[in-house]
Amino acid sequence: MPQTLTALIIEDEPRAQEILRNLLTAHFPEIQIIGWTPSVKASVEWLGEHTPDIIFMDVELQDGTSFQIFERTEIRSHVIMTTAYDNYAVKAFEVNSLDYLLKPIELEALRRAVSRAKAAAADVPSHVEPELPPREKFLIRLNDRIVPVKTSQVAYFYSEAKNTFIVTEDGTSYVLDESLDTIERQLDADRFFRISRSCILSEDAIGSVNKLMGGRLRVEPAKKIHAYTDLTVSRARVDDFMDWLER
């Protein structure tokens, strides 16, 4: 019995979407297409509620490029880029796409890409890292000094201009050498929540939550914690954030 994989097609041209859909339906019955989105905005919203096995992702969309999707939401699916241009290849592999298909898509190239996706999906269980206890402290290097900061003292982490910062409950801010993605994997998910692509917030740092236009939420920090960054919960994470608060 062939391995069944779910797929999302991100494509702003209906004709190109139809061609890819027909190729997949005719030659890859094990691929179940469960969605189609034509823009960055629609894709981010769709991915906020679904996690397909594969995403066939056109580069140039109605409202930007597909690389902006990676900036606005976490992509857990295997990505196959599709585009009429060859100048995005390097950037495509920087976001760990499995393959890069030039339009018009040839069947043999599509076979190669699907084969890679199936192999990657089959390997997922064997590559799961062992679960480690949450990190208890961060060591901040300040020239010739090292300042230990306990995780229990952290209000939030945020990224800005390619730098990562840690902010403590007394409002002190330090620069970290690690990315938010790396830090997120080391935190206690019961105490910390990633409210956006650029911010991970501690539950203890929340004073109140205000509703904004467009379905988003803004967090007002507790006590006298200084907000160095925008503490707005991204639209795609609002439901999960509320579930986390109410748990």
In a few lines, what is going on in this structure?
By secondary structure, this protein is an alpha/beta fold. The chain is built from seven helices and 17 strands.
| Structural class by SSE content | alpha/beta
What CATH first level of the largest domain would be assigned? Answer: Alpha Beta
State the fourth-level CATH superfamily of the largest domain: Response regulator
CATH topology of the largest domain: Rossmann fold
Domain module tally: 2
Q: Largest beta sheet: what is the strand line-up?
A: 2-1-3-6-7
Order of helices and strands: EHEHEEEHEHEHEEEEEHEEEEEH
Q: What is the terminal-to-terminal distance?
A: 40 Å
Shape: elongated
| Largest sheet descriptor | 5 strands, parallel
Q: How much strand?
A: 25-35%
Helix content, binned percent: 25-40%
Describe the structure.
The chain is α/β, with parallel strands linked by helices and 247 residues long. It is 27% helix and 34% strand. The chain has helices at residues 14-27, 40-47, 67-72, 89-94, 107-123, 180-185, 238-246; strands spanning 5-10, 31-37, 54-58, 60-61, 64-65, 78-83, 99-102, 137-142, 145-150, 154-160, 163-168, 173-176, 192-196, 199-202, 206-211, 217-221, 232-233. It has a five-stranded parallel beta sheet with strand order 2-1-3-6-7. The protein has a five-stranded antiparallel beta sheet with strand order 12-11-10-14-13. Strand 11 and strand 12 form a beta hairpin. The longest helix has 17 residues, at 107-123. It is elongated and about 60 Å long. The model is unreliable at 125-130 (pLDDT under 50).
